[in-house]
Amino acid sequence: MMKLMSYKTKIFHPFLLAIFPIIFLYSDTINEVHSHQMLIPIVLMLVISIVLVIMAKFIFKNWKKSALIISLILVLFILYSPVFANVSGASIGDFEVGKHRFLIIIFAVPILIAGYLLFKTRKKLDNITLILNIVTISLILISVANIGTYYVEGSIYENDNDIQIISGNLSYPDIYFIVYDAYSGEKVLKNYYNYDNHDFINNLREKGFFVHDESYSNYDSTVPSLGATFNMDYFDSNTEIKRVYAMFTESNAVKIINSMGYKIIDFQKHSLAVDLPIVDKKLCKKDNNRFTDTRLLDQLLKYTPLSVFIEINPPEQDRDTQICLFAELLNTQAMFEEPTFVFAHSLVTHPPYFYGPNGEALDSPTNAYDEHYVNAIKFANKNTIQIVDKLLDVENPPIIVISADHGTFRVISDNLTYEEKIRQQHQILYAVYFPDQNYELVKKTTTPINIFRIIFNQFFNTEYELLEDRTFSDSIVDANDLDETTDILINSRL
């Protein structure tokens, strides 16, 4: 008891509060980022909190009072962005109250009141200091425990027993897996955006592609969709999906492709962690500082009021990355003598939009749908045809898969039924080119879950069973569960 009481004179809570968001966010996104990305934010926040406590000491003439006011400021700092996200645009009558200038005043009031009370009080504040020390230590320990549990458990996707390893062969065809983020299917574009994409679809068919009249993504967001495609299997819960990032290098498709002696080419995806980290060549990679230009730092800034003043993910980087992907895809055929697997995930059809239909740069990026989304589709179509023409203009053309990871996000209208929203989120572009023009297996499935199973069976003599087409959406009932929407999207058409 005496040892515990001795901590009444120690001040930990402002410094632990300063680093708690970093450790918590890392524990929540541990499968997306590397541990070294915590270093700079932790050092920075510790320095800032120490400086603030010292500055406050000059005002309050007492370390405990100084620590308490800084802890309050840090708590409000952490809460500001989530609160603003919930009240942004809110109005009382015709008066809009959900603005930064009003919220800042509201947040300043408790700081001023607490500052005044602390300045006037003569209490030693030992008890409240002890309580805050215990609370902040507990918060840190919980996050550290989550991190430790993750590493102890290891990846749950150990699928070696299900892998059919294939010996390398220089005569294998190249494989191009081109993914357009949020590229909707032909019917959604026609029904909800008044855009007829039939000419583009027919152009692909004339070049030898097989394109389903109606295809669906297996999931309604990028990470589980691409994770399931590469793993060649479904995820049955959000708990499993959280480990998708960690399994990309160990996914079934990547293991098999590596076993066949393929060289792997990937493209830089700004602020997106769906990468294939073990690659032979990464194109369009910008010069990053591995400590300061990180996904974790981006996410931390987004969760603080600093996001109001600091531009996160500069538009110029996204502009350059999108244009670079189209340009470099044209140059990938002769990069290696060995057979090549190319994974190109383009964000050009995902907001924010940077280009017009012919590639003209917009004055500023926009998240607006309708015209800008359609223009992004047109821009993607134009570049896709150029890329396809180049890839097919060879003696031994490659396997080409052009697919979306999910459909559009334009589901906020109250006039849409649940079924309409689900269809918008799932209906996608899904086109396949095989050099032998044999699409019998492709015709048996309308979702991308089987695409690697089909490629391996047809061109590398494996015997994978084709999975039943299924679709899932994030559950609104249980955060650890998924809503299966197969009956709505697929079975209703049978």
Helix content: 40-55%
Number of beta-strand segments? 15
**What fraction strand?**
5-15%
**CATH topology name of the largest domain:** Alkaline Phosphatase, subunit A
How many alpha or pi helices?
A: 18
Given the helix and strand composition, which structural class is it? alpha/beta
Indicate the overall shape.
elongated
CATH A-level architecture of the largest domain: 3-Layer(aba) Sandwich
Main beta sheet strand tally, sense and closure:
7 strands, mixed
Number of domains: 2
Provide mean pLDDT, rounded.
Answer: 82
CATH superfamily annotation of the largest domain: Alkaline Phosphatase, subunit A
User: Gyration radius, to the nearest Å?
Assistant: 26 Å
What is the CATH C-level name of the largest domain?
Alpha Beta
**Strand arrangement in the largest pleated sheet:** 4-13-11-3-8-6-7
The unreliable regions are 1-7, 155-161
Instruction: State the end-to-end CA separation.
Output: 71 Å
